[in-house]
Amino acid sequence: MLNLFLKNVAQRDNLSAQSDASLKELIDLMNMNRKGVVVVLEGETPVGILTERDIVEILYGKVDLSNKVIDYAKKTLVSTKGSRTVGYALNLTLENKIRRVIVTDDAEKFVGVVTQQDLLKYLEEDFYRLTIKIKHVLNNFNNLVSVEPSETLYNALKLMVDNKISAVAILKDRKPIGIITEKDVLRIASEQVDLSETVGNNMTGPVDTANLDSALVDVVEVMNYKNIRRIIIVNEEGEAINILTIRDVVSNLEGDYSNFLERKLRSAKEILNLLPEMLFEVTDTGEEQLIIWANDKVLSRFGREILDKNVTSFLPPENWKTIYSTLNKLNKIENIKLKKDDLIYEISGVNINTDSRMEKNRYQLIMRDITEDVRLSTVDSLTNIYNKRFINEFLMKEIERSRRSNKQFSIVICDMDDFKQINDNYGHLSGDIVLKAFSEIIASTVRNLDVVGRYGGDEFMIILPEASSDTAFSIIDRIRIKIENCEIPVTKNNLVKITSSFGIATYPDDGMSSDDLLISSDERLYKAKSFGKNKIACS
Asked: If you average pLDDT over residues 262-267, what whole number do you get?
């Protein structure tokens, strides 16, 4: 039943009004549709919504009911396409804590409305398999808001507005004799009843009641049969202790109904398409692990051809080996990073016990593209080369790698000669243009295995793996000459020429720690400057 299309179950009779209608006209519509809601349209497009709770506040605020509805329909609309399913809509109401969803077609035109009570009807068959009682879904047993029958309607409205509740119980000697609901308020507004009248003369009564040990399925059946959205809960002495609403029932599908909901959500894959992340499932047959399902986010990026294929054709085999081992050992994985198609992803997931003889295990995995996050944390935003944090981390790793392999490597610190004059003469925007051009020259001239980073201001670092001092000098001299011969347009009519000075330090001859290498390279940079700039110092 969760797979029924919303366009086939949505209702629209007396559920919409044009934006130029009056509040009184809308209230009359709401009284007729008995759904507690009217969608405000401009032509056929939903632009607003008014609910019974809005009418309570409007009446309490003594608003002129001849005013146009558009001025009061300020709620953010939650809508979905008619091609979505009942299961999708149920999840939407739960996630957004709303009681109804607007249904539209592909052109965003109004199709109808589905309420939580409508959705609940499609779940009754599953309630019959449960033994859930009222006490399992009520969070508070002594949190009832009530009035006596002699109090005024205005006092009842005030309690509803102040407590943000949809109903007030009417008690006599602590026992329920009636109820004032948002639906009653609609009738009161439509009939223009004076708010100084007593609630006893305007309440709905007698009222339906249930006790804490009543089976939830019985209560839901009564609600659906009588088309009511709340029942007063009483104790063994018949004294009122709380009000159970449809919202309580539906919201607890996520709480005490966890087993029920998990079964439903797993079978209703449309719901999982709501997730902003990419999500897919892998079945373990005991012999191989196959991708058996993926949500729309995955399919739109990688195509449907990934389905029914071994997961190692989708994820790098070495990464899947780690993921698979961890899932089977700990039943979950968190934030495992991997590279695929030049992008970086982060994967988390769980082992789902399906109790099926057809498969050994089922794994549900969420994959998030963190390429941009990684780039922002490692790349300098101006020059688009590595930042100081990354280059320092790489230096530490290169020291460890070279120590293990007993090989040399070199680092270079360089900056532009007289860069301040460019900022002074042409402005900081021109200075940024020069910095970008400078970094592009270096990055395009070094070897593929070399790493270039901006160290700060106009200072740059280059790490040259497995490069002796002589090799490093040869590479850097090519860069120096290329920079010397370059003309950079900084304004419409101005070209600038620049030079740069370089200091080279080599592991392990000039130091075996990052501090020693950086100090040595920095000292040689200043030595190159003292030699007249546009020079390289390596000793």
From this structure: 42
- Strand intervals (E) in 417-512: 451-456, 459-465, 487-491, 494-497, 500-507
Which alpha helices (H) appear in 164-210, and where do they start and end? 182-190
Total number of domains constituting the chain? 4
pLDDT tens digits along 72-101: 987 667 788 888 777 667 766 764 567 788
Please give the Cα distance from 58 to 303 (Å, whole number). 51
Task: Write the CATH number for 423.
Answer: 3.30.70.270
Model confidence pLDDT, tens digit, residues 378-434: 899 899 999 999 999 999 999 999 999 999 999 999 999 999 999 999 999 999 999
- Beta strand pairing call for 175-181 and 209-211: unpaired
Task: Report which secondary-structure segment, H or E, holds 86.
Answer: helix 86-96
CB count within 10 Å of CB 536 equals 22
**Do residues 442 and 501 share a domain?**
yes
Token duo for residue 181: 């609901």
Contact 82, 104 (CB under 8 A): yes
Please state, in angstroms and rounded to a whole number, the distance separating the CA atoms of residues 468 and 429: 38
Q: φ and ψ at 468, to 5 degrees?
A: -75, 175
Residue 482 is classified by DSSP as H
The Cα angle at residue 413 between residues 411 and 417, in degrees rounded to 5: 155
Query: What residues make up the domain containing 59?
Result: 6-120
